[in-house]
Amino acid sequence: MQPGGSMEDLMAQVGAMQQQLMAAQQELAVTTVEGQAGGGLVTVTGTGDGQVKSVTIDPKVVDPEDVETLQDLVLGALANLADNTAAIAQQKMGPLAGGLPF
């Protein structure tokens, strides 16, 4: 083995991982993710990088006498969106989270 050879290999691996990480982040930014609550009565759409893009509420759940249920459904849909976003991020970036093989 040449002196410094292993350091060069390590630097090449770091560079490759950085490129893979950047590509995964760019892919997440354009990936559409949905979160739902109430069996689809409230749907929140966002991107894999955490940006909320839209909220859709079925008119059936809009009751001026029961605003709390609608608020709970929106919170539930946002929580579901966050869970789904985390799952997609883990899927796309999981192999990169393992670090360098030593």
From TrEMBL:
It is found in: Cytoplasm, Nucleoid. Its main location: cytoplasm. InterPro entries: YbaB-like_sf, YbaB/EbfC. Gene3D superfamilies: Nucleoid-associated protein YbaB-like domain. Keywords: Cytoplasm, DNA-binding. It holds the Pfam family YbaB_DNA_bd. GO terms for cellular component: bacterial nucleoid; cytosol. GO terms for molecular function: DNA binding. Belongs to the YbaB/EbfC family. Binds to DNA and alters its conformation. May be involved in regulation of gene expression, nucleoid organization and DNA protection. NCBIfam families: DNA_YbaB_EbfC (TIGR00103). Homodimer. This is Nucleoid-associated protein FK530_00035. The lineage of its organism: Bacteria, Bacillati, Actinomycetota, Actinomycetes, Mycobacteriales.
